[in-house]
Amino acid sequence: MSERRTEEELRSQLLAAFPALEGRIRIARARRVWVEVELPAFRELFERAVKELGFTILCIITGLDEGENLGFIYHLADWGGTMLNIHTLAPKADPRIRTVTELFPAAHIYERELVDLFGAKVEGLPSGNRYPLPDGWPEGQYPLRKDWDPAVLDAPLEATAGGDTTGEGA
Amino acid sequence: MAKMSIPIGPQHPALKEPESFLISLNGERITDVAMRLGYNHRGIEKAAENRSYIQDLYLIERVCGICSHSHSSAFIQCVEEIAGLEVPPRGKYIRTLVGELERVHSHLLWLGVAGHEIGFDTLLMYSWRDRELVMDILAMLTGNRVHYAMNTIGGVKRDIDEDQAREILKAVDTLEERTKYYIEVATHETTLIQRLSGPGHISKEDVLKYGVVGPTGRASGVGRDARRDDPYAAYPELDFKVITDDHCDVYGRTLVRVGELMEAYSLIRQVLKKLPAGDIAVKAPRRIPVGEAVSRYEAPRGEDVHYVRGNGTDKPERVRVRAPTMANLQAVAKMLEDNNLADVPIVIAAIDPCFSCTDRMVRLDKGERVGLGPASESVDWGSLRKRGIEWYRSQGIDFAELNRKFEVRG
Fold first, then answer.
1. Which of A64, A128, B91, B252 could form a disulfide with B155 if both were Cys (CB 3.0 to 4.6 A apart)?
2. Hey, is the C-beta of A55 within 8 angstroms of any chain B C-beta?
């Protein structure tokens, strides 16, 4: 393996492309770099990281309930073992993000989790079976939001129309 | 030839775990695969937010029954990073030792399953017999065969002594000899080679595109291994090869796994030889500071990724788990394309899937579960059977005739 890019080198590369990130890049330890970015600038940063900075591995997408906002962390990795974790926020009132499946076709499963468990709206998400909640899961119930209480399920629920294809909810 | 769709699962014919594949066929050839997952969803991520870090350790270990140490290590590495704890060298070595023993038990288990899926049950009997050796070693070291509970925040819970080390080395010698025999079988036995060569082909480009991890990716020539690339525990001080292969099919995945068994034996011997003296753990605080960390761990099936966010209390704000099967399943549809229907079980088994890992989260204790009846009551055989019949009917398959024939009387 060739010389590993240091975290400081990565910081300079990011700052050269996005001066607005000044003060928003945190080097937690060797191989761990965290970046905070506003939602409108997220896409460009993400694409640059993937296409130009060599972060061609998407490890996971983490959803977070951060009060007024939903948080999203895209955990990217390069082939030298460095992880670039890009954190962005979208207001809960309209938690709209764009899919990254054009760059990572397998990411749809992580995005479906954001939809089911956090109520995120992912624009451009290809159609397919929901994941991971069952078909017929009540509308508007997002289990990983902090204010969600399993007690809501104690009341008898009307089964809503099922999801796409399995017919399980029928 | 007429096109048709065949539902496979959620009661899977090959694996003892539920998932559902809707397979479209043109004659015998597969044209498309739609997957439905989530049947094993247990609400672990949500549950972890309501428990203390120590309780979570036991919970996270139960994400998977096979790679329990992998998940607890990936989780604990995050917690230790947030808390700024440095695990003593001896603790790191013992973690690595258990991790490699786990890899041996998982790969031998896989070898048996793969043998079974292709009708080579002698291989199943042989490899599972040998696997008992490593299970006994794990039970001796930790007290348990599967959920070892060896990790604790700041290190490991049990030390090992010289008698135990001797026993491990004895078992490893036998296992190595047995594995050499399996390598001999895998490289010379014509029936096995011909049955496994071809099915489940995935190119290197597709492995990169779909983010395939673990032995499945390495069998298509992608040398990605968190132990080397993003090292943790004692791996930076140990010498090992990342096994790759370029067959890109089920046969390649077999060769990679038997190769990794040999590397695991070498790693176990190195750990026991170099095992440093000293403490096995440092004392950890009950409250973990505000902070976040992400860690990767090379589990037997591929890369586990865990993310933890602490909020200064004794309970985490958020725990996120990604098991390797979650990453690999996305590529299964690609692997099955243009294969024969009869190859479905071995192709799916060849990624060594673990659906209980893949689905984790939403625990329901009581009350009306949509379409399932009261969750707190046990489901009797009759209603379970009725539900199964209705589900299959909704998929276009009617067992009415057969049901009349095999009516349960009583």
1. B91
2. no
Using DSSP, state whether A121 is helix, strand or coil.
Answer: strand
Is A166 part of a structural domain of the chain?
no
Residue A1 lies in a domain: no
Is the residue at A90 inside a domain?
Answer: yes
Q: How many pairs of residues across A and B have Cβ atoms under 8 Å apart? A: 132
Contact between residue B156 and residue B149 where contact means Cβ atoms under 8 Å apart: no
Range name among B135-144, B190-199, B243-252, B352-361 with the lowest pLDDT average: B352-361
pLDDT of residue B389: 79
pLDDT digit string, tens, across residues A30-71: 999 999 999 999 999 999 999 999 999 999 999 999 999 999
Q: Which domains does chain B have, with CATH numbers?
A: 44-358 (1.10.645.10), 373-410 (no CATH)
In sequence order, what DSSP letters do the residues of B291-322 get, joined into one string? Answer: EEEEEEEEETTEEEEEEEEEESSSSEEEEEEE
A158 within a domain of the structure (yes/no): no
Q: What is the mean pLDDT of residues B217-241?
A: 96
Residues of B in contact with A108 (CB under 8 A): 330
Give A121's strand partners. Answer: A96
DSSP state of A117: I
Integer Cα distance of B217 and B230 in angstroms:
17
State residue B14's pLDDT score: 65
Q: What angle do the packed helices B121-142 and B162-188 form, to 10 degrees? A: 160
Residues of chain A neighbouring B85 (CB-CB closer than 8 A): none
* Residue bearing the bigger pLDDT, B188 or B375: B188
Least confident of A79-88, B234-243, B343-352, B373-382: B373-382
Note the pLDDT of residue A12. Answer: 96
**Strand partners of residue B309:** B292, B318
**Identity of the amino acid at A79:** W
By residue range, what is the domain housing residue A114?
7-153
CATH number at residue A86: 3.30.460.80
pTM: 0.88
User: Which ipTM was obtained for this model?
Assistant: 0.90
Q: Could you tell me which residues come within 8 angstroms of residue B87 by beta carbon, excluding any fewer than 6 positions away? A: B80, B95, B154, B155, B233, B281, B282
φ, ψ dihedrals at B232, nearest 5°: -145, 180
Residue B212, phi then psi, degrees to nearest 5: -70, 140
Q: CB of A136 within 8 A of CB of A159?
A: yes
Inter-chain residue contact B370 with A157, CB threshold 8 Å: yes
Mutation site for A-interface testing, chosen from B318, B377, B391 by largest number of A Cβ within 10 Å: B318
Q: How many degrees, rounded to 5, is the angle at CA B107 between CA B135 and CA B188?
A: 120
Q: Do A64 and B231 touch (CB under 8 A)?
A: no
Number of domains chain A contains:
1
* CB contact (8 A) between residue B211 and residue A138: no
Asked if the C-beta of A165 comes within 8 angstroms of chain B's C-beta atoms, the answer is yes
The whole-angstrom separation of Cα A51 and Cα A46 is 9
| Amino acid, res. A54 | G
